[in-house]
Amino acid sequence: AATKLASAEKLMYFCTDQLGLEQDFEQKQMPDGKLPVDGFLLCVDVSRGMNRNFDEQLKFVSNLYNQLAKTKKAVVVVLTKCDEGVERYIRDAHAFALGKKNLQVVETSARSNVNVDLAFSTLVQLVDKSRGKAKIIPYFEALKQQSQQIAAAKDKYEWLVSRIVKGHNEAWPGVCRKMQAAPEFQDYVYLEGTQKAKKLFLQHVQRLKQEHVERRRRTYLALLPQALDALVPDLDEIDHLSRSKVEKLLEAKPDFLKWFVVLDETPWDATSHVDAVDNERIPFDLLDTPAAEQLYEAHLEKLRNERKRAEMRRAFRENLETSPFVTPGKPWEEARSFIMNEDFYLWLDESVYVDIYGKHQKQLIDKAKEDFQELLLEYSELFYELELDAKPSKEKMGVIQEVLGEEQRFKALQKLQAERDALILKHIHFVYHPTKETCPSCGGCVDARAEQLLSSRFLRPPDRHHHHHHHHRNPLAADSVDRINLVILGKDGLARELANEIRALCTNDDKFVIEGKMYELALRPIEGNVRLPVNAFQTPTFQPHGCLCLYNSKESLSYVVESIEKSRESTLGRRDNHLAQLPLTLVLVNKRGGDASGDTVQSLIQQGQQIASKLQCVFLDPAATAGVGYGRNINEKQIGQVLKGLLDAKRNLNLLGTALRDAPDAELRIVMCLMCGDPVGADEVLLPVLQSQGVRPAPVGSSVVA
Description:
Layout: E1 4-6, E2 34-36, E3 39-45, H1 54-70, E4 74-80, H2 87-98, E5 104-107, H3 116-127, H4 139-164, H5 172-179, H6 183-192, H7 194-231, H8 235-238, H9 243-252, H10 256-259, E6 260-261, E7 282-283, H11 290-322, H12 332-339, H13 342-347, H14 350-378, H15 394-404, H16 408-411, H17 417-432, H18 446-457, H19 475-478, E8 483-489, H20 494-505, E9 511-514, E10 517-526, E11 546-551, H21 554-571, E12 584-588, H22 601-615, E13 618-620, H23 636-661, H24 666-675, H25 679-692
Parallel strand pairs: 3-4, 4-5, 6-7, 8-10, 8-11, 11-12, 12-13
Antiparallel strand pairs: 1-2, 9-10
Helix pairs in contact: 4-6, 4-7, 6-7, 7-11, 11-14, 14-17, 21-22, 23-24, 24-25
Subcellular location: Cell projection; Cytoplasm; Endomembrane system
Domain PG1 pseudoGTPase: 478-655
GO cellular component, one term: cell projection
């Protein structure tokens, strides 16, 4: 209880650990000479002590207090170790203080760092009255505030860590240096210490690593089905193999290492492979995980289903070929109940069967028509005494039908009477005008064959009139007018289907007759992404003259628009930029078997018309498109019209080309070149003009004019 200490040049000690290890701690000398004491902290341990009686302890404290009181210095009672405090001891200590005059009590815990500052500031305030009074807060309330403060500091610190640490391979020393100046780091370390800060950092890094591994795992699992499709697409090869045999089989495949990588250390996610981000291949040991096993089972299931569906298609075709109920022209609705069984419905949508049925019907009808044509040739005497160029009378048609009526080949077409009548009329026309155009054998007609043979043997002498112009390159004039190259654009099979139908209308060697003249027809159906070379409108061997765009839904219409725009973009400014002027025809084709997407025909027509005006192309109205023959989307007449339009466009370009060569001044010739889609020709006119004025155009990949 002394109030004057004399202790010159002694070290100040902060804790007992310093004894004997003075050089390891901060060394501070006590002030020289005398040291006055201004106040006392009277500390009372309120935890449960071993072999210690609290009442005795309180007696000692009471005596000590009496000594201190005599000094008239400020005193504050400090209860320590309140984190392990005994309630009764705390109560008794308070009771003791209450009996004294203004003796304040502060409840502290050094371990939890609660109210320690408060104990000192309370004493300082008693010594120096000019300072503001600190409010004394009971231990549990202070602890709660402290916990909230720590929680808030921890949140802020974790936010800082997540902002600074992005990779799971970062190490503490470097990160610690980066954070040193940040208040979030300093506050948390002040409250909780460096070790806890490091622990939170390690947890964060661990979490990052798990997320990274999960992302890699998802990527690999997404790739696995493709790998299986590529390496083991054949059901027979794997259907009955055990897992280990399948793995051996995969390893033996020539492409195995393209898809998989075999690691020396496994499992992959416990090794450095986790960080080999540029290695896209799937670690082979991943196959032994449940997720991969499920995907393998799904692969098997998929192959089994595909096989089953193929079997169904086959069985259905056999049904069609053997069923007596499937006759030419019989609509699906009538035939369905005779040829469908429950199994078929289980495996494939009805639309698939309708499609197969449609193709089968087409073959049946073609065959029946051919047979009927033979029948008409056999009964030639029926057609002799008709008047020339007159349409046969009703009676005469009646007579013809009566004579043929008993014939099986006549009956075969009874569901297609309109077509049968048309064949009869066509035949009558042939009898009176036997030319190669009206010949029932079409391209097989001897007249046509003879002409072809002759023209391929003898080349005609060049046309003398234009002989001196041949050095002008007009790429469109170079094409023979007798050939038409047509792109057919339509997704999900539309393009292929129409191409097949048009080919069916052609002669045996892909010739198509327009206004009595034969043209060679080359079709290029496109259904995929036109940015890929395999789907390009134009190839080194195929220069399109026109494009037929098909759609039967909103989705297939947007595919058309995208494709046209993409192909126009891709040729902008190229030397062979004909695609920008490519004549287009947009066609709404029939929708078969109802439509799930619910676009009405009306709305599809409207959309089609809008798009057609946007793309500046012809729009074919489906009302006019109701073709003859089952499932035919566009009839022969309309295909003829489209092709005729293209021919006219070609002829006009050729005429333009001729006019262009003789145009008097350069400007006009350039304009005409561009109208013909011939930027190269335009360049040939422009370059000499530029050079004569001393301008040297930079060599660009595209045409100068463009």
